[in-house]
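Backbone-to-sequence.
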């Protein structure tokens, strides 16, 4: 079977608010997803039972991880251990992320 090439930037949603989550790969205990954020994210507090590694592909954002505020720009990446409360505080329009969830 021949591998199918896909592009991270295909079919990007245009969001007025919130975020869009698209699963790109699921393999054993790893899930890779693309996240597109509007400039009005939902401010949900995540506290997951699994580890997560994120990289900001495009845009700028501010996260709150526990009680710390962390600013990210395109190319910045971060590991978030399981059971670590984290929240998207603000984003530039149409931020694009990759998130790798490790179960």
């Amino acid at each position: 079977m021949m591998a199918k090439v896909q592009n991270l930037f295909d079919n990007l949603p245009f969001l007025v608010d919130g975020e869009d989550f698209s699963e790109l790969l699921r393999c054993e205990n790893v899930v890779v997803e693309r996240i597109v954020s509007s400039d009005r994210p939902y401010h949900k507090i995540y506290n997951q039972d699994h580890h997560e590694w994120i990289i900001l592909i495009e845009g700028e954002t501010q996260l709150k991880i526990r009680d710390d505020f962390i600013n990210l720009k395109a190319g910045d990446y971060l590991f978030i251990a399981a059971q670590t409360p984290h929240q998207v505080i603000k984003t530039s329009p149409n931020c694009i992320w990759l998130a790798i969830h490790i179960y």
